[in-house]
TrEMBL record:
Pathway: Nucleoside biosynthesis; alpha-ribazole biosynthesis; alpha-ribazole from 5,6-dimethylbenzimidazole: step 1/2. It comes from Gemmata algarum. The keyword Transmembrane does not apply. Keywords: Cobalamin biosynthesis, Glycosyltransferase, Kinase, NAD, NADP, Transferase. It comes from the Bacteria. This is Nicotinate-nucleotide--dimethylbenzimidazole phosphoribosyltransferase. Its EC number is 2.4.2.21.
Amino acid sequence: MSNPTPNEIRDHIAALAAPEGGLGELMAIAEQLCRAQGTLRPTGGPRRLVLFAADHGPDAESRVSDAIHDLTSGASATAVLAKATGTELIVVDVGTWCDGLAESPRYRCRKTRSGSGDAGAGPALTADEFRAAFAAGQKEAELAHAAGVRVLAADAIGADSAVVAERVLALHEPADDPMGVFGAVGGSDVAALAGLVAKASELGLTVLAAGAPARAGAHVAERVAPGAAARVIEGRGSPDGLGALLALPALDAAAAVLARTARRHVDRPAARAKPTRKVAVFTGSFDPPTTYHRKVVELLREKGFDEVIVRPSGPRCDGPEVEHAKPVHRAILTDLAFKDVPGVTVDLSDLDDATFTPHFSLDDLLGDRGELWHVVPAEFVTGGRASESAIHNKWELGLDAWATRRFVVLHPPGAAPDDDDLPPKCQLLAVDGHIATADIRLRVFQHGNARPDVSEQVDEYIRRYHLFTGLTIPRETRVHLSGPRLKIVAADRSEKALRAAEPFRHLESPDPTHILVLGGDGTMLQAIRDHWRLRLPFLGLNAGTLGFLMNERLPPSLENTEIVLYRMPMMRVDAELPDGKRVQSLAFADAWVERDSGQAAWLKIDVDGHTQVPRVVGDGLLVATPAGSSAYARAMGATSVPLTAPVFTLAGSNVFRPRFWKPVALPETAHVSFTTLDFNGKRPIRGFIDGQPIGPVKSMHIRVSTVANVELGFTPEFDLSARLLRSMFPPSDPL
């Protein structure tokens, strides 16, 4: 489960097969680890311990030089314990009085100044010195992330570091310049720790802060970059990083318990009183989905399964990637193959998240749907009598899955697997006509036809976009309509749109091949939101004003009409609400945040995990697709772009700072995040997706969806350039 709520985490841990209360303190650690990593299956490594060294006060003689030498030589207790726990150790000098050592894998000199001033007589650090040390900490987090580190322990070494940390922790209400306020009482080590925590949080690393300086760094990071503390696991520990090292084995233990412990099976009398729903989970690459896959689903329904969940699998990390269609095409093909089979749900979660959910975890994820049965081919149970089946050896927790999970075993008619090879809870299903998807892909690559092993709609889509041919997949293609059947969507409050729909009513069908939308761009956006999952091309007919997404005219018969289909992306929008809950939506045109009070919004912009603009002061920020570039984005000063342009538009509304702000074009592969810098409720923001309000938000993360896109159809006379010019230079009003 991705980004579980605190209640979901607690329920998951409470259901583990352990003595009542037997996890003790480990339960609290496991809960923190799940929350920090946003998953029910966290990890304790790879890990690194970073110790920032600094001197404090007016004394010009270093009191940490011996400790630095002992740590870098491996002679100190901290170095010995780091090696014993498999933890990489690095010492970073950010502000000592001692001379720098030669650079080595265990030591870096990144001094911002030698020692810090006497906080009793004046500022310990200037704002610029604090920022420089903060940047040094950020750099360490980036280096750790680049090295594959997942857990980053951090602390400081230096006389009076704990005293300085307590002064910093006592500050809760910094002014507009928090760097100057914290620098006045802090030190270079605390500043570097704050930078490390802030950047590590952006990069998705878990931070273990066991000492007072590390907790002070997390305190500063949360004030400077709200939300950074969400990935911090705090603890009380010994100085010089010993506390963090002693806590790491507990993290390992918690991660192991969460990953390998079975869940307790609770037999509730109330559940026995109700008929149990039987749910089959059918996973695979579906690259492409075949008529055999469809036959399996139909037979499962005939055999009494109330629901069949078809779940295309995401990329695996334990083997080579063999699929040859991009996730968005696999998602479309799967929807087309199964959309008209009653009782079937196509679950695109793994494709959308680019992850692979182990079969064992599906019971926890989908268990509330009913009694879960895993659909597997007969070769998965071969060798079961000797515990050498694919389920035993390739599935996570395979031995437990074999003993406790339910299976539907597919086999050719007359070739059932040996009874001794079958798991304890299984049901056999004879299905003929199996063909490897690799054979179909090879046949298409060699200029053959995917039919009759795929459905007509799947075959048409494969040919339309040249899938499996080795050719570049086009963003647009031309087709001639043959026997079109329509689903008609008209703006119900527009008499003009309703009149325009009448000539096409004779083509309406319960089994449509295209969606005809009559009205303006708003009607098209609503139609896309409601019907994109039908995976049918949208044809627009303008019955509104400008109609940037609409045709000006279409022949009533549509037969043999030439249409240019533009394949256009949708954006996935993940928003975090003020209470910590997360909502996920899709946008075709744009998504934006704006101020929700009389105060200007203070926002941070991240692109691809890196902060590009630390603070934007204005009314709001917006990301638009090419289809949305002619709407609200244009009102913010952005230039409309062609529908086929592979870009996102980033625009701001009434931006006061940074000065001279201008809209920018980003590649459509970019991941863009807006995060409010409001931490006292003074400057709330609210979010919108395609003009629809989602209410108050803390942040919004936007990227191109890996499972959702839309085909818009236009007649050849549709002129993108002319339409763009009309949107930018509308006709003047008559005098």
